[in-house]
Amino acid sequence: MKIYDAYRLAIETGIKNDPRPREEVDLVLKNAKEEYDMLSDEKKEYFDKEKLWNPYADSRFSWGEDLAKETEAERFMWGIDIGTGEIMLADRLKEKGQKVSAVVAHHPVGVSKTPFPEVMWMQTDMFHDVGIPINITEGLMRTRMDEVSRNVMGSNYNQPVDAARLMGMLMFNIHSPADNMVQLYLEKLIEDSGPKYLEDIIDILMKEPEFKQASKYNDPPKIMAGGRKNRCGKIIAKMTGGTSGPKEIYEKLADAGVGTVVGMHFPESHLEEAKRHNINMIISGHMASDSLGINRICDVWEKAGIDVFGCSGFMRFSRN
User: What is the pTM of this model?
Assistant: First the structure.
């Protein structure tokens, strides 16, 4: 398999495991096609054409697509955050005789950095699915997306990509597709286990190797709002959709009957809102949760003969 084909396989795997109905994902692609068709030839030059088949603005091939279409995908180095240091690390490993076909980032970088708030829109459907009216979720999400967009506008988005280009190291990132995988995995895990108390959710998470390993690094899953013997009520997992949504959503979640939210990480303002509306909150852990989703993508690659080793927070555990 070529490197670019492996990249496309990861995106397609994310689409198959998207928490939204498939027609909503197809609508994203349809809207992108209509937007492109309406542009003048001059403006089409600057349109991100990957939008025509990839619904995730936070996942892109950073540089070297043409070369990636000709180069075999043998062994990838994947990290949660990739900076110039990780690019130099990959080059040093190659000097020492290790195979590194490409460097893979999880968090957005390069062309996927500034537009990544676009994927937050998928949260509107996720929250609608638990009983919040769609007009409410859309209204709240637009304001939060604008805020996140302003926050990333000043970023030095291409710094590690420039380093990769100078070193001749192919690089891409996979964000929402991997997050979709952990979203689906934990939703099913929690539903099948039927936890009654918050401590039961912790026990469920601690059966997975990513959370066991994170606990050895003093980062176990934690109950942030509620007590160990608090009853869970209706449980939702919030693992995908770019980043944290609007804090005002917790009042609406309480109205919809949600009792417990499980997520990778939350801002302090979210914790305060959850407590104010008597919603239990469990933080599963950022590196462990990201690693779980990434591992599900790596398992697909592994079946295609591609080896992956971790760095920068990613812990590789195969489930094949």
Answer: 0.97
